[in-house]
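Below sits our specimen:

——
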Amino acid sequence: MYPYQAPFEETHYYYDPYNPFDPYAERQQQAQGQQQQQQQTYQQLLNILMSSIIGEATAIDFYTRLAKDAPNEYSKNVLLSAAKDEKAHLHLFTRLYTSLTGKEPKYKIRPVKITNFRQSLFEAYEDELSDYEKYRNAYLLTQDPSIRDTFFRPFSDEIKHATRFSFLLNAR
């Protein structure tokens, strides 16, 4: 004779928030942690986008005005080319912000005061380096290809601008 075996019964697990060894509680905590991390990343991304939109709009205004004070045609063309790139960046960031939030960004710029050409160009150079790092970090913040693509061109252009501004600063 064979001993009696009960038919296979599926074991049901129930979430027990008070049991520290409950594997389902651990999974739920991990899921909540991931959700909080995603929310923080999303908010961080929106903050970066808004500051980038304001920064790009400010740069367009600044470079266009600074080009009028340029000592030669080459410097003027470098500044106007940078302003053109900044317009493209502004468009990219505005489009991404609108697609993420469902609304157009609202902002105002404070025009940068132009003291003298060389000092203002140095400020532009420093700003371009700072923006390069900000956009590179935003690019690395997410794995979403559309967001990464939006930041890729601006972070490459910003280092190009810094290089050209450095050349203008060091030209004799």
Observations:
- Residues 23-170 form a domain with the Ferritin fold (CATH 1.20.1260.10).
- The mean pLDDT is 87.
- Helices lie at 23-68, 73-101, 117-141, 145-170.
